[in-house]
Amino acid sequence: MKRPPRGSPSKDDLPFEEHADHAILRPAGYLNALAGDRIEKLCSKLFAKGIRYIIINFSQVAMVNTIGISILVGILERAIAQNGLVYFTELGKTDRQVFEVLNLHTVAPVFPTDDQARRHLRRDQEAVRRARPA
Amino acid sequence: MIDYRRFLAARPTEDFIGRASELRRIESTFQERASSPTLGVAVVGLPGVGRSEFLRQAALGLARSPAEGFPLYFRCGDVIRSVPSGGASASAASLWAALIRQTLLQIAAWNRGVFPLDPPLVYLPTIDLARLSDPAGALAWMELLSNPHLLEPTAAPDCWAALASRGGERRGRPPIIVLEGWTDAGLPGFAAGVLADLLRAAVLRGLPFLIEGSPGDVETTLELAQAEPLDLSPLEAAAATELERHVASLAATRPGPSLNEIFPSGLATQPELAWAWGSALARQPGSAPHARRAWEAYLEVLTVSAWAARRRAALNRTLPVRGRLAFLLTVAALIKDAASGRPGGASIDAWAAALGVDPPRAYRLLVRLERHGFVARQADGFGPPALAPLKDWLEWEAGLGSGELGRGTGRWAWLRERLVPASPVPHAGPVGSVAGLLMRFRAQSLPESLFVFERYLESAGRVPPEHRRAELLKEPRTLRLPEILAVEAIPPRHPAEGGAAALPIYVAHGFSSGVYQRSHEAAWIVGDGTAVPTLTTAEVEAFLDTARRLEREFATGPSQRWMLAGEAISRDALNVMARERVLCSGPDQLALLEELTAPEVEEAPAASATEPAGLSPRRAKAGPRPTSIVSFGQPPGLTRTELRLAPRPDNELIAAGMAETIALRAGFDEEASARVKMAVLEGCLNAIEHTAHPEKEIRLAVEEHPDRLEITIDNEGAPFDPRLVDEPDPAAKLRARDRRGWGIKLMREFVDEVIYEPWAGGTRLRLVLTPGRRPRARKASPEAAGESP
Description:
The complex is a heterodimer of chains A (about 130) and B (about 800). Chain A has about 130 residues and is an alpha/beta fold. Chain A contains 4 helices and 7 strands, in the order βββαββαβαβα. In chain A, the strands form 2 sheets. Chain A has a 5-stranded mixed beta sheet with strand order 1-2-4-6-7. Chain B has about 800 residues and is an alpha/beta fold. Chain B is built from 28 helices and 22 strands. In chain B, the strands form 6 sheets. A 5-stranded parallel beta sheet of chain B has the order 2-3-4-1-5, sandwiched between helices. Chain B has a 5-stranded mixed beta sheet with strand order 10-11-12-14-16. A 5-stranded antiparallel beta sheet of chain B has the order 18-19-20-22-21, with helices on one face. In chain B, α5 (about 90-110) runs parallel beside α7 and α10 packs across α11 (about 270-280). The radius of gyration of chain B is 39 Å and the shape is elongated.
């Protein structure tokens, strides 16, 4: 997918795909506080519906700043609290470096593609199901 | 209870400088009166030397000390003025009645025990008759006081003396008769006779006395009353300097229309004080409004004061009309000679020629003039007096008489010449100081755009610096500056919490158009914002509030307001200043002002027609243009690029983009340039977040060094201490309430050096990147590496 031009503003509507047990969010442009708030609000709605697994696809994200990262960490914490998780996919080189230097990859899985993230999501769901008491 | 000195209208003791030995002598004289062959002391001194005030201080000392006697103080001038006018005998009777009433009131006050603390009682028209020892006699006194024409003039002195003695008997110690202004040259004839009889009566009764007079008058008194003379010379240099300093400090700490608030009798009756005040303040550039009022007070002393009237009366009595102007002109010339170092005296023959009389008559006239202090005897003749107020008064009268002073300009110039030191402070003040620049205002006409910021940008701002002066001087519109005579610095007030920086303020006083009259007074109120990197509406509004307050305090009416700006001014601030008609100058304009107002201004070199050196095509490829901030920095150079941004969200993208572009240009690879971009993004993000005011700006500078790339990000706001930010731990951040705090770590990982330092009341962030650096390797997750789980 072609990356948007650098510096382009985030779109007002946040594209996402809702599935039975997970959702894929595709934010675009500069992932700043404003964009992070949109993501957080959408995730709140999804959590309220019972969707506990979120995949955030970074293919359209031009840049992310640390305010955006702090919002993503908050979303991750809420997902974990519901026995869910947030996965990050298709990070650009720089964004991947950001995740690495900040050690975010130790708490949030990062995958090259959405499919790989889904496969890992299924394993996580199975692990959670097994961990439930009979 | 009220202080006795209020009755005396004496200067507060702590404000009376010098004369300590003379005061001690007074006290010891009255303490040892029994062994003294004389009854009293005559304070002898030239007019204006401070006799009256000395007398009051001496009376105050006598009232306080346990010495024998208590003062009965008579201000002869006041008592005489209270007498209704009439024939000589009627006036004399009325004057006796007034003196007796004064005596009764003071004795009653002392006997009540309210003295030394109850002076208003003394001025009440009624007295406590019960306090008098002879009630029947009191009725007689009442009748006499109510009908002074019944008072037998020949008996009045004895009546008064008996009364004064009786009052002393009740107190167990005699009264000390203190007569201020006893030898006042302006006394009417009947009054002089009454006072002389009073003193004689006191002597006959053995009552001690303290009087004052000039040398000629007191000579008669000495023969008559065997008074001991006490010469009051002009203050010694050390005491005079101390008086000047003390007066100046009083005026500085207690600003007001005059020092009358401190000195109840008013400056008009204390010429030496007025002169000390005027000359002390005129020497201090920081006391402009008080200096002006000092001049006015001193002028009042010299012209319309009672002191001046008495001097004039004495001169008129001493010299015939035909000789007065000649005498004034001669003594004024001698004063000028003395001031320039030449011998200030003239021989008797020279005086005779000047006055148009023969030498013996000239000598007699000069002796009489000497008694009044108008001349001083010298080895080979007579010269001008030593006292500054007397000299000034003589010169003033001479100038008036000759028409030299004229009106307005001449008078102010004359006054300024006397009160401003002979070696004035050079017009060019310390380089770079606001006060120094203001003192260079000497009614020049300068290009108006030096004071109008936006016009300067339009005209000279686009021209290379070395040609700006020439460009400015072509401008047809000029501004005529006033002639500034004094500059006062107003220290900045503490800003309100979260408020704008409090700017130092300067108030400059002078005159416009070279006319030294009230109608041409000019005042400039200057706000020094040069230390503020970005001037915003907050600072401008605070300056305007201060300016309005100062105008109310000084009652100078509307002043010209002038704001000195630092490196940048917000658009909104410019709009406010335009609306309020505030002049505004930036650093370039101020530098040109310094240059154009310097004492010797060299001709500007002719503008070169060739393109100024230093421009290169690469300048066109400078970083992104600044947004919403008016700035007038230097054009981007080869190795330094500057950018100024409003502290608005997402403006960090502009800075980050510029940094990446420059990094690429400087030879860094894409990965390194992207890291620079991220580091700058985070640095600007923090700067925007911590900037104190939306009109402030963020300043970015990228310097391309041979061995490194150095980026500075400056913001005005609360200083930032990175040590207060903990190293972020992702797992801990998951559980934490505050999930911020990633930026510093990110910057430290992406560039070589991250340095925070204080800057202009805010923070400077310095980022340094060297070529070839790569971020530290991290053990990435298998998924991130693209491997299948």
